[in-house]
Amino acid sequence: MVYLPNTVLAAIDITFQNSMLNVFFLTEMAILALFVLIALYIWRYDKKSILFFAGAVIYAALFENLNILISRDTIGGYFYNPTFKFFVFHTPLFIILSWAIILYSTKIITEATRVKQFSMPFLAALLALIVDFGLDTTAIRLKFWFWQGYALNEGYFGVPANNFLGWLIIAFSFYLIYLILDKKAPRQKKLLLITLPLAAYLLFLLIFSQINALETFFNLNKSTEFYLLFSVIMLFIFSIKRNRANKITTLAYGRAIAFFSRLIFHLFGIIGVLAYQFYQENILLLAFPIIFLLLEFSPHFLLKKIQQKT
């Protein structure tokens, strides 16, 4: 049964939902098609990433459902619109598949960027965050999901700072654990599919508990939490160190697919704002998704602003 808080009927405008049925279904089908396309590419050209991609699906299903339950009935908690057709417990299937697509795209781009291995989880996390900054504000206005206790004029146009911190830590934890396990002997890699999602989620919980402790210690509110977010983003940026000696091993096809898949998510954010005229609420709802889209055209953007090491 899909989790819905007691206030769900007040949050969901039935008339609006009826007009959005086609959009919901088309979104589910589009993500499914994109997932199949990437899965076929991996099967044919990038077999070494099969366990990463499959593990990302399991990881997304795990953390999405558990996080919904952990945060239920709390400010900053969230739940998904029950109008979607296909669910895995409390989470729409297309959300889980989207996570796998985004995590894989960050892997491809990170491996195509000459950074030290230590820096890879930090870069992968920032690349994942760029996608969410471009789509989340549109998605909540289309009522794809709901943030409890947040009005559209609170946080980042209705999105809590902890959501973006969550994206950072979720991607960071998964990629870090993957790098650690990938170094193991081939026989041990057989356990990767099982241990990667679980170990990554446990690391996420550990790190995020420290973030919650900091928020409590400094008595941060819906606005001041963004100071912590900014500090963590800067920490991640300054943790990225270049290594020009690294060889780029990813195929051009793979980089093109990674960029194309990320472009789909960015266009969702921009087209949604234009089609439903959300920009009338605040022009920044259109400006920011365009800015984050432009970042995709410069994969070394983050690297230009940091101290470089060779």
Molecular structure report:
With 310 residues, the protein is mostly helical. It has one domain (8-240, 247-304). It is 64% helix and 3% strand. It has twelve helices and four strands. The protein has helices spanning 8-11, 14-19, 21-45, 50-70, 93-111, 120-141, 161-182, 186-189, 192-217, 225-238, 252-275, 284-295, and strands at 78-80, 87-88, 91-92, 145-147. The chain has a two-stranded antiparallel sheet. A hairpin with a 2-residue loop joins β2 (87-88) and β3. α6 (120-141) runs antiparallel to α7. The longest helix has 26 residues, at 192-217. The radius of gyration is 19 Å and the shape is globular. It starts with 7 loop residues before the first helix and ends in a 15-residue tail after the last helix. Residues 300-310 have low confidence and may be disordered.
Short description:
The chain has 310 residues and is mainly α.
Please report which band the strand proportion falls in: under 5%, 5-15%, 15-25%, 25-35%, 35-45% or over 45%.
under 5%
Count of individual domains: 1
Strand order of the largest sheet: 1-4
Helicity level? 55-70%
* Overall pLDDT confidence: 87
Helical/strand content category = mainly alpha
Count of beta strands: 4
Largest sheet: 2 strands, antiparallel
Q: Determine the oligomeric state from the structure.
A: single chain
Q: Cα distance, first to last residue?
A: 53 Å
Shape summary: globular
Radius of gyration: 19 Å
